[in-house]
């Protein structure tokens, strides 16, 4: 039985939140949880989140030029929210060859991509060296491409396959060319939910241990939260507070990305998609609670272009990238285009009243002449 949100007997007032935001003070758990209630005006929440957003990132709307690579969709796990995975012998299962992977790298570089986002299934028969080799061949062939790869779910699997500590795996991946870790695999940390939607894969303790180890090795990482399925306000608040705690310790997270659940073709297809209002509320609350995160990303692929644009006034300062070859959300029914051109992405940021700035994965401004580019300065964040 999923627990209801904590009772709001002595509910903190929004005035306290308003004062704290003005003073740059931290919200506590009760204040954060209260903000999910429908009675808290969404526009006011957006205004408060926008204060924090503009304090940290001014009027900038970040984007990048990136390409996705999902080397296989075959996966030993059966997360209930996933439409991407396939069984070993299923007709839609695929495994990319080294040639196909290198071809994807070539295409990315020719299109001017600064980043390749690499995640995929945990194939029943592929050894750890197959995954390590993906990083090595791509980095050797295309050293300018930042490889943002493997969630803690994969790193934990590699450790299981090799019986080697996660730290050693991460160090070896870094040595082979891994640039940073994406934010996936976080889902909802609270076991009341996690045990129901993805009971077998890396648990919350392991997810955090891997990000901590990555940060200690000098690798930056992102964090996500999958919302709009069976979780409630209590679980979402708990999720954000856990992230804030590790960030206090290491400072290694760059960006938080709330991920709206897409139900099509999943075992949770009876659950309706979260509304635009829910997505804006989630973005705003995340911006207010995660006071130690520099960036909030509105991932346009899954929010839809309209909600991603509106998010730029509700706490978000980044809308991710041009995104070639995205599969995870499109398999789950996302109706967004598979790619946006740079002109389109800049126009949609401008239309939302923000100044488009191309960034690299580590948030340096990018200077570019066609497909040739260099990282310039890092924009200062308060
Ligand atoms: O962990 C899977 C989610 C994540 C569905 O770091 C789904 O920059 C909604 O983490 N509906 C992977 N969500 C994607 C991810 C990500 C995306 C964009 C940018 C970054 C970054 C990271 O996708 C998974 C899971 O939480 N997911 N299936 C679905 N049906």
Task: Give the tags.
single chain; 382 residues; alpha/beta; TIM Barrel; seven-stranded parallel sheet; three-stranded parallel sheet; 12 strands; binds ligand V47
Notes on the structure:
- With 382 residues, this protein is of the alpha/beta class.
- It has a single domain, classed as TIM Barrel (Alpha-Beta Barrel), CATH 3.20.20.70.
- Helices cover 41% and strands 16% of the residues.
- The chain contains 15 helices and twelve strands.
- It has a seven-stranded parallel sheet with strand order 2-3-4-5-6-7-8. The protein has a three-stranded parallel sheet with strand order 9-1-10, covered by helices on one side. It has a two-stranded antiparallel sheet with strand order 11-12.
- α3 crosses α11 and α6 crosses α9.
- The model has no long low-confidence stretch (mean pLDDT 94).
- It binds ligand V47.
- Ligand V47 binds next to β6 and β7.
Sequence-ordered SSE layout with sheet pairings:
Elements: H1 14-23, H2 29-34, H3 42-57, E1 60-64, E2 66-69, H4 98-110, E3 115-118, H5 128-141, E4 146-149, H6 152-162, H7 166-176, E5 178-181, H8 191-197, H9 204-216, E6 220-227, H10 233-250, E7 253-260, H11 276-289, E8 295-296, H12 300-303, H13 305-311, E9 318-321, H14 328-331, H15 342-351, E10 355-358, E11 364-369, E12 372-378
Parallel strand pairs: 1-9, 1-10, 2-3, 3-4, 4-5, 5-6, 6-7, 7-8
Antiparallel strand pairs: 11-12
Helix pairs in contact: 3-11, 4-5, 6-9
């Amino acid at each position: 039985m999923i627990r209801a949100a904590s009772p709001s007997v002595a509910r903190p007032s929004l005035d306290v939140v308003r004062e704290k935001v003005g003073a740059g003070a931290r919200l506590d758990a009760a204040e954060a949880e209260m903000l999910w209630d429908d009675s808290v005006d969404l526009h006011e929440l957006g205004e408060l989140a926008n204060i924090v957003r503009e304090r940290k990132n001014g009027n900038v709307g970040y984007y990048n030029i990136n390409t996705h690579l999902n080397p296989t969709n075959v996966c030993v796990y059966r997360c209930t929210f996933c439409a991407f995975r396939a069984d070993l012998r299923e007709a839609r299962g695929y495994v990319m060859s080294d040639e196909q992977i290198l071809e994807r790298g070539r295409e990315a570089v020719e299109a001017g991509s600064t980043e390749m986002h690499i995640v995929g299934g945990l194939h029943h028969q592929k050894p750890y060296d197959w995954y390590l080799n993906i990083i090595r061949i791509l980095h050797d062939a295309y050293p300018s491409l930042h490889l943002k790869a493997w969630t803690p779910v994969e790193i934990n699997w590699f450790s299981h396959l090799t019986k080697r500590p996660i730290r050693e795996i991460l160090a070896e991946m870094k040595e082979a060319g891994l640039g940073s870790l994406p934010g996936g695999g976080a889902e909802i940390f609270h076991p009341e939910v996690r045990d129901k939607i993805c009971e077998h894969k890396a648990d919350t303790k392991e997810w955090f241990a891997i990000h901590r180890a990555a940060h200690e090795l000098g690798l930056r990482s992102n964090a996500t939260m999958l919302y709009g399925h069976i979780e409630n306000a209590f679980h979402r608040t708990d999720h954000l507070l856990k992230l804030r705690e590790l960030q206090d310790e290491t400072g290694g997270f760059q960006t938080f990305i709330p991920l709206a659940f897409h139900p099509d073709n999943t075992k949770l297809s009876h659950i309706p998609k979260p509304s635009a209002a829910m997505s804006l509320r989630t973005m705003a609350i995340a911006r207010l609670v995660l006071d130690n995160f520099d960036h909030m990303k509105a991932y346009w692929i899954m929010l839809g272009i309209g909600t991603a644009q509106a998010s730029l006034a509700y706490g978000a300062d980044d809308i991710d990238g041009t995104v070639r070859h995205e599969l995870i959300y499109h398999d789950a029914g996302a109706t967004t285009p598979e790619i946006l051109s740079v002109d389109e992405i800049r126009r949609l940021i401008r239309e939302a009243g923000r100044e488009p700035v191309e960034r690299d994965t580590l948030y340096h401004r990018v200077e570019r002449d066609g497909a040739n580019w260099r990282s310039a300065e890092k924009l200062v964040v308060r």
